[in-house]
Amino acid sequence: MIKVSETAKKKVTELMSEDGFNSVTDFVRVGVKSGGCSGLSYDLKFDKTQESEDKVFEDNGIKIIVDKKSFLYLIGTTLEYSGGLNGAGFVFNNPNANRTCGCGESFSL
Known about the structure:
Elements: E1 3-4, H1 6-18, E2 27-34, E3 40-47, E4 55-59, E5 62-66, H2 68-74, E6 78-84, E7 87-93, E8 99-100, E9 106-108
Parallel strand pairs: 1-6, 2-5
Antiparallel strand pairs: 2-3, 3-9, 4-5, 6-7, 8-9
């Protein structure tokens, strides 16, 4: 399960609308790919379609889809949004990560 904080929900809804997506019917696709300074990096995008192997979650009114491979890395993660002085952006609070980089966009297990 992936959770969505209230601040992330507001920003996701806003960005989806700006990009022509509907936060009620469309999805936030969250994944993991090789790369980044810690070995793995997060991938976040909007999607209108669900693949047969995708895991589907809904939290705080946001529908999230995760591919089967990425799901193992993301169990228990909370998607948050930070608009602080150090830069605005989505933050993944992942309890499975042993090490994260300074920017918070990559991790290792």
